[in-house]
Amino acid sequence: MVIYSYSRLSTFEQCPLKFRFRYIDKLEPDIKETIEGFLGHKVHETLQWIYEEVAKGTILKLDEVLENYVNGWNRDFNREIKIVKEELEAEHYFNQGVKFLIDYFIKHSPFKDNTIATEKKVIINLDKEGKYQLQGYIDRLVHNKEDNIFEIHDYKTGGFLKTQEELDKDKQLALYSIAIRELFENVNDVHLIWHFLAFNEKMVSKRTEDQLEELKKEIMRLIDKIESTKEFNPNPGVLCRWCEFRSYCPLFDF
Length: 254
What we know:
Elements: E1 4-5, H1 6-14, H2 16-24, H3 35-55, H4 62-76, H5 90-108, E2 115-125, E3 133-144, E4 149-156, H6 164-168, H7 172-183, E5 189-196, E6 201-205, H8 209-228
Helix pairs in contact: 1-2, 3-4, 3-5, 4-5
C-alpha cells in the first residue's frame, strides 16, 4: 500500500508527467535544489530552532536567531543550487531570509503560545479500513489548553500572498487537521494558520466536520484516479520554468 503525501497528490494535479518522472520512473532531476527551496528550508530550520529553544526555557535575542540562520546558510550553501531568476544573486535570497526572521521575531517574541511540537509527523486516515492514508509534517502545532483548540501553523517564504478565499479551499492543512482531531481527545476546533513571511502577514482559516468529510472523499477519488492512470500526460503552465525534469519532457527542445 502506498502512503501518499500532499506533495505527491499536488504533483499529479499540477502535471501527471512530472508525477511519473518523480514517483514512478524515479528519474534523476536536472535541478537538485533551487535557491527558493534552499531559502525556505533555512528559514524553516531557524524557526524550528527558535521554538525548540524556547521549550527549554531559553530567552532568545534577535542576534542569536540571526546567527543561527547565518550559520546554517553558510554551512549548507553550495554553487549547485539553481538560481532560476538569473538577474538575481544568492545574496538577494539570503537577505530576504534575514528580513523574514527580523519581522517574525519582532511580531511574535517571546514565542510563548504553548507550541507543543515542531515538524510533527502525522498520519491521516481517510477511510475506516485503512486503505487510504496520507502522511505529512506540520511546521508547528499549538495547543490552547483552556478551550482545547489546536492551531496548525505553516510558514510560507514565497512571494505570493494568497487570498482568504484560496485559503478557505486549501487542502493541505485541512488534511492535517483530520489527523489532529484523531490524535487528541475532545478537540473543540482546529485553526489553520499561515505565516506569509514575505508580507509579514498571518492568515487563518477553519473547516467544519462536514467539509472535512467531503475532503476525505475528494482525496480518495484523486488517489483512485492516480492508481488507475495509464497515460501520464504533460500539463504545461507557468511552473514549467522551475520544473526539475524539463530535459525529459517532450514539450521542451534542448
